[in-house]
Specification:
Helix content: 25-40%
Largest sheet: 9 strands, mixed
Pathway: Amino-acid biosynthesis; L-lysine biosynthesis via DAP pathway; L-lysine from DL-2,6-diaminopimelate: step 1/1
Distance between the termini: 54 Å
Subunit structure: Homodimer.
Number of helices: 12
Strand content: 15-25%
Family: Belongs to the Orn/Lys/Arg decarboxylase class-II family. LysA subfamily.
CATH class of the largest domain: Alpha Beta
Bound molecules: ligand LLP
Number of domains: 2
Binding site for pyridoxal 5'-phosphate: 225, 259-262, 356
CATH superfamily of the largest domain: Alanine racemase
Protein name: Diaminopimelate decarboxylase
């Protein structure tokens, strides 16, 4: 049990807390599920890019899936070996491509022919052969929130099957491109297996057809997306997930790459915030806390559900919204939840805040971002200090 009150007293609120032992369990569960084949778990750094989190995963043997050169740098700094780092993303700058090639990471995931041309030109300039993989958009509805759904043609991600094949043939004939991998990622917070199996089958067919023309794909990247329980969702068992993918790979000797973010850290993180006061507007009850949408954006942006709890309080529950001090009506953590009466300084825990929490925080309303704390074997450690007002203004100048 994590002593949330002691942590709030020691580090103040709002605060992020991560249970590293839980992260270890998540990693091992997934790695074990894939044990029947060659696999590389490449943690999606975007979910929680704190250096300590990434280095903890590095220690477990994880690779990294990065979407900017900044994330690649973090991964290298955190000790992820370069041959376990992949660089994805729909728009990479020339300088990012150049640096990734200089760093000699495992591969760059490409999402368009235009991008492939840039990578080829930059690799030629550097006298290198770029290891690439192509993101295929299998046109599958992942049945998740439209903002985090990526595998339909109407989304900006990847290329269609025909374009992918053309790109592989081109890359295979290029001196500066080595097409070693294939990639798909149909969405995030997936709770149904069937769309994943379908997507995997479509992409595996393409790999077999490439094999028939002597283009050997070594890495089969199934993206991330495994959902977690926020409320009462039925989620996909890692074992069944792996088996579904295996079932599509007959005749292929590939290393499976999996890029989980949320699964690895989502339920290992907690957001702590204290009650400032309560108010009632024409019968509508609000609990106003010191954390806000700038600290944890998911409820405001996706109307996402996060379980909340007022620590150590019970009694006459009534419906209330938990809201922050930011001047937006969309600034809330929970809506119409049954909550006990609260008073100044009561502690509220927002659950499932380990993924896409701190990383999506901003300084809106000139609010310093929260501190982050790791719990390792029952001991707490600050892994990112709370920002100060001075941090927020240090890059600004008053020109007049
Ligand atoms: N690989 C690719 C290519 C991705 O685009 C993503 C997530 C992942 C892996 C990791 O997905 P995960 O395993 O975490 O589902 N901010 C949103 C989620 C955006 C996900 C973007 N891509 C949220 O808070 O729900």
């Amino acid at each position: 049990m994590i002593d949330f009150r002691a942590l709030a007293d020691k580090y103040d609120t709002p605060l992020y807390v991560y249970d590293f032992n839980h992260i270890t369990e998540q990693y091992q569960k997934l790695k074990k599920a894939f044990s029947g084949r060659k696999s590389l778990i490449s943690y999606a750094v975007k979910a929680n890019s704190n250096l300590s989190v990434v280095s903890h995963l590095a220690g477990l043997g994880s690779g990294a899936d990065c979407v900017s050169i900044g994330e690649v740098k973090r991964a290298l700094m955190a000790g992820i070996p370069k041959y376990q780092i992949i660089f994805s993303g729909v728009g990479k700058g020339d300088d990012e491509i150049e640096e990734a090639l200089e760093d000699d990471i495992l591969l760059l995931n490409l999402e368009s022919e235009a991008e492939m041309e840039r990578v080829e030109a930059i690799a030629a300039k550097l006298g290198k052969e770029a290891r690439i993989s192509i993101r295929v958009n299998p046109n599958i509805d992942p049945k998740t929130h439209p903002y985090i759904s990526t595998g339909l043609h109407e989304n900006k991600f990847g290329v269609d099957l025909e374009t992918a094949k053309r790109m592989y043939i081109y890359a295979n004939n290029s001196k500066h491109l080595d097409p070693v991998g294939i990639h798909f990622h149909i969405g995030s917070q997936l709770t149904e297996l069937e769309p994943i199996r379908e997507a995997s089958a479509i992409v595996a067919d393409l790999v077999r057809s490439l094999k028939a023309i002597k283009i050997e794909i070594k890495f089969f990247d199934v993206g991330g997306g495994l959902g977690i329980v926020y409320d009462n969702e039925t989620t996909i068992e890692p074992y069944e997930y792996a088996q579904a993918i295996f079932s599509t790979l007959y005749g292929l000797d590939v290393t499976i790459i999996c890029e989980p973010g949320r699964f690895m850290v989502g339920n290992c993180g907690y957001f702590l915030t204290r009650v400032l006061y309560e108010k009632v507007n024409e019968g509508k009850r609000f609990v106003i806390v010191d954390g806000a949408m700038n600290d944890l954006l998911r409820p405001s942006l996706y109307n996402a559900y996060h379980k909340v709890e007022v620590v150590g309080k019970a009694g006459d529950e009534s419906e209330a919204d938990i809201v922050g001090p930011v001047c937006e009506s969309g600034d809330f953590f929970a809506k119409n939840r049954l909550l006990p009466p609260t008073e100044h300084n009561d502690l509220v825990v927002v659950y499932s805040a380990g993924a896409y929490g701190f990383v999506m925080a901003s300084n809106y309303n000139t609010r310093p971002r929260p501190a982050e704390v790791a719990i390792v074997d029952g001991k707490d450690r600050c892994i990112r200090q709370r920002e100060t007002f001075e941090d927020l203004i240090k890059l600004e100048t008053m020109c007049l």
